[in-house]
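Tutorial handout. Part one gives the primary structure; part two gives the three-dimensional structure as tokens.
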Amino acid sequence: MVQALCHHFSSVLYVSLHIFLINLIQLWLFKRYDFVSMYTFRLVYYLIWHIGWGWVRLGY
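Part two.
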């Protein structure tokens, strides 16, 4: 039970940190370049994370 709770906490911590860093990168892109660059980064990130990683994780 405790091990499962620790694993859950570390997963939540990892995802939270990951989202925070992606948002910081987006903010930097928006300030440095423009909205289109920031939006393109977001689309490419989603493509890699949700489609690419999902495909790898499911073993296709």
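Part three, for discussion. The chain has a mean pLDDT of 87. Residues 8 and 30 are 33 Å apart (CA to CA).
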